[in-house]
Amino acid sequence: MWVSADTKALIFDCDGTLVDSLPLYLAAWLEALKTKGGLDVSPEWFVSRRGYSEGMVLSELEKTHAITLNRPAIMAATREGVRQRLSSVKANAPVVALVREWAGRLPLAVASSGSREVVEAELAAIGLLETFSAIVTIEDVTRPKPAPDIYLLAARRLGVTPESCLVFEDSTEGLESARRAGMRAEDVRPWSDFRSAP
């Protein structure tokens, strides 16, 4: 992909952008919600909320079912479930190729609404953990995407201005987050080499 001369840094979402993790999250979430929360959630419900942070998923479930969930237990079980399935995670080849093309030429960061333990494990699984100068996750900010916080923090950690960053995303929430941060954003969905399905 062509990157303009005024671009000073590239920032990548992780789940759905660098890795096809939706099948892993889907299985892990459905299992954790059933065993730790007593909820049977349809695959379609979860897939329609791809791009949501853990807190957003749980808040919507609590509101819909008028219940209070054991959030720490569900999140811990979900993260463990994803890690257990990482042997089957697939890299998004076109986006990973872009990372490798620009590594060492421009500062690179990951900005994800996922947890650090899972994001770092995913990056390690596809051989990219050491490639990024900064990795920003949900633990680093107060507000998840579509708030701009994650992308603004990534730019600060790279030492560049928001307007000089180019973002790569696969979700409506992520693209809106980058826009609110004043960054240019590329939707990778049209040129991804996978199409996640339940």
From TrEMBL:
Print the keywords alphabetically. Answer: Hydrolase
| Entry keyword Hydrolase | yes
Q: Which Pfam families match?
A: HAD_2
Q: Which residues form a coiled coil?
A: none
**An annotated Gene Ontology molecular function:** hydrolase activity
Q: Which domain of life is it from?
A: Bacteria
Q: Record's InterPro entries?
A: HAD-like_sf, HAD-like_SPP, HAD-SF_hydro_IA, HAD_2, HAD_sf, PGP-like_dom2
Record-given protein name: HAD-IA family hydrolase
Q: What is the lineage of its organism?
A: Bacteria, Pseudomonadati, Pseudomonadota, Alphaproteobacteria, Acetobacterales
